[in-house]
Specification:
alpha+beta, binds glutathione, globular
């Protein structure tokens, strides 16, 4: 078993963060996305969508999508639970993780992907859309700041995959000058707490 990843990219960091929370060590193989190794035929056989991370199992199965990889490890190693504990809690974690993906991670990713030269020739770009998504990301952070006024973590009183998605996205926002603003004190409090976890350095 190994994980094909790129150390500086946000989605692989989600998986490393998750595995560190579980205390699991899985070998990593670096994929040179700068030089487009992920876009070559050999990598496309692992993931036709060319993205990292990809978990390669010993039986030759390839699992891409960060959350799918995390769910696989959650099933095998349920403690500590990062996807919720019972029907209601699991639904709430799912709701919040999806919200973090759609309202925080996606706009922050687009603010970079739709403008930066890294993606020139890889995807269709529209610089105006990058700016729209930067503004959407800022709205998302304002909303999240208000949400975090009444609980410790994003999905409630327990750290979960939703916190991982959000903190990784927000940290990646810096490259597009999307940052927590001085008046977003709830967000800043949460960000400091989550960033202080040893797993944040994985
Ligand atoms: N939804 C996917 C997104 C994966 C993704 O966008 N990975 C980026 C790195 S964060 C990537 O592989 N970028 C290189 C490229 O598109 O060429 C997941 O959660 O794994």
């Amino acid at each position: 078993m190994k994980i094909h990843e790129s150390h500086n990219a946000p989605n692989p960091r989600r998986v490393r963060f998750f595995l560190a929370e579980k205390g699991l060590e899985v070998p990593y193989e670096e994929v040179d996305i700068v030089n487009r190794v992920n876009r070559a035929d050999e990598f496309r056989q692992k993931n036709p969508l060319s993205t990292v991370p990809v978990l390669e199992l010993d039986d030759g199965t390839f699992i891409s999508e960060s959350v799918a990889i995390c769910r696989y490890f959650e099933e095998l190693h349920p403690q500590p639970p990062l996807f919720g504990t019972d029907a209601k809690d699991r639904a709430l974690v799912e709701m919040w993780n999806r919200r973090m993906e759609f309202n925080i991670l996606q706009p922050i990713a687009d603010a970079f992907r739709q403008r930066h030269d890294f993606f020139k020739g890889r995807i269709r770009q529209l610089h105006e859309y990058a700016e729209v998504q930067r503004l959407n990301a800022e709205d998302g952070l304002d909303w999240l700041d208000r949400e975090l006024g009444n609980r410790q973590f994003i999905a409630g009183e327990r750290f979960s995959i939703a916190d991982i998605t959000a903190v990784v996205a927000i940290d990646f926002g810096r490259v597009s000058k999307i940052t927590i603003k001085p008046d977003q004190q709830n967000l800043a409090r949460w960000h400091a707490e989550v960033s202080a976890r040893p797993s944040a350095k994985a």
